[in-house]
Amino acid sequence: MELSLKRFQKGSSIINALIWFSILTASCDIVLAFEVAGLTVRVSQLVSMSVMFFFLLRIIRFGNVKILSAYYNLLIVIVFNTICILRSKTIFNAVGYDLWLLFDCIQVLTFTYFLSKQETIYTIIRKYIICFDALAVVGFVQFALQFVGINFFVTQYNDLHRSNGFSFEPSFYATYMIMGSIICLYLLERRNYMCMKRRNLMISTVMNVGAVVISTSRMGLLVLLIYIVYRGIMCLRIYIHKRASVIRILFTLMPIMVGIGLILFIIAVEFQVPFVMHYLSGLGIGGTASHSTDARTAGFKDTWTLFLDSPFMGCSLGGIDAGIIEYKSRNYTVANNGGASMCVSLEALAAYGIFGAFFFFKYLWDLTVGGYLKAKKRPGEKREREPVYAMLIALFFEFMILQLNQNVLRPPFWVHIALVSTCLQIYLRDSHKNYVTGVNPGEYYVKAQDNS
Q1: More confident position, 16 or 92
Q2: Which of 35, 138, 301, 316 is deepest in the core (most CB within 10 A)?
Q3: Which domain range does residue 8 map to?
């Protein structure tokens, strides 16, 4: 029995290491990745597949799996997406995307299953922040090396010195780093150091926010600004009613600073300041070209038109780009993937149809708002819930930034969903205790043996 327990614990440690390696490399698009039939296959996904294999073995040996009720909505979405393949203009591509969606859903299940038994909420978030810190370091190295003419995996090299980490482009990098930034900012504002010590959390906050800034992604900076203003207003309410901390006072002053910044911005545009005008390139502001804005606007319109063409029966995720391109009387190739549509919410409507999209939005609603309400009703100190809230808020703002992007199947997004699901499952299971923790692997093993 003792030998079996040691084997179980050793196997759990290996699985845990595989999961965290997959999480660390989830945003790697240009390293540890290769192309297969027009689709990018990442090493992180291959590692996740090995975890899924272990998951299958555990299910065969130990039996049932407990999952959040919201997960069933996701299974219904898969059914709708599979049925909608029949309307896709390119069956091969549609099947590939359908399998990709299925993979992401299974990944959520497997990560939640293993991490909820091996980790606490606090160790999960601490390790997750460290993963963001590692990619932030890559961004800073890229930024610094460009000043001496060294191109370290930089995909958009120009005078602005943009960082993209190991992602396809700076906007993808910012979309990833925004989650780490919001988690750190929220915990720092709440002075919650249950996941990391104060000094380490401050360093991580500076690194993650700095990574978004040096990406120079307008979408990333906009969402970050919206979050800071939102929290500033919330802190203002606290400041009015009771004495606030220095950090909260800084958040309170942020809306005023933003207002001053907008005034300076208008003046800079009026006097055509070179740096500002370079940054506005592509938006059609201050007399600049509007190619970036025009492309996004066209993507919104085309995706909406595709949905209106068949609102009840979509064309599946893999059929959206082909449908739009055929609508425009052009020839489709796999090179067009991810370039024609825009806004993941509109993509859900066009892919699954109105009924399938309902279950997709319901899944996200139940996971975020539903998860928040369930956690709030559970007994326990508010400080114990705040790390969970940080994950939920980061998911909300990540979904917000994806409204200005395409392809809901981005690996970092689903990794975050998996970790949110894990944190909720642990909290809802253990919140009646004096602390929030995961089940001891040894205890779980003995229980499973007794039930077998």
Answers
A1: 16
A2: 316
A3: 2-167+289-451
